[in-house]
Description:
The protein contains 7 helices and 17 strands.
Amino acid sequence: MLIANNWDDFEVLDAGGEEKLERWGEFILRRPDPQAIWDKTNLDLWNKPDAFYHRSKSGGGEWEFLTRLPQQWEVKYKNLNFVVKPTSFKHTGLFPEQAVNWDWITEKIKNDSQNIKVLNLFGYTGGATVAALAAGASVSHVDASKGMIEIAKQNVQISGLEGKPVRFFVDDVIKFVQREIRRGNKYHGIIMDPPSFGRGSSGEVWEIEKSLNELISLCTELLEEKPIFVLVNSYANEISRYAIENIIRSKIPTGTVSSEEIGLPIKERKDFYLPCGTTIRCEF
């Protein structure tokens, strides 16, 4: 497992009972997590969050704010800054386990002498976009949600990267990639973080089992003559990382493919880690 253990402004204090207790800067949030199926410890710790997301039996849920929590605040990872903003879907606008990939793409970009161009698909609030920009790449960031892209722009700004070469597109990823092929645009690095299910900016349906193979196939047409990486993240429990490895190996036979679970350390539990999906990496 690849462990995101270089944070100062974030930590999982404890996890268990299908919940996690996290510190985001100076604030503590309690949220559901279906991977944390073991028992809780230190129950007193769990009774003092600043906000508690209650899951509804009928689906969804809502936040209970127990202190005067700001609408949004900032956290820092190394030289990168990010907005944290609790949403109605229990998320915060940031997946801290992805720091292992931010470090990886930073190293790949800095160790290559080309003028690196990166495509970030399903770019969400731009964690990977900010990391790639800070490492010296130019980035095209694509997401179907205008609201998420606005937060990504904030993250670029608060990280001191205004003026760096980044383009933002509110678009369906497959339609965008098809247009980039027609335009003749090429990239040295491609990142994608596909959901299990989603809708594009014009209502297009994305289903990972039916759509991922097509997307990766299309993306091979966008790779530069000397690419450096393709990175696919997956939170879809129904899809094995080896299935995604197989797609990439069949579409990009010149690359070296590997995959790992990614996770976060749990402060209250020595040698316990919270599983947070998988990452599949193709290097050249």
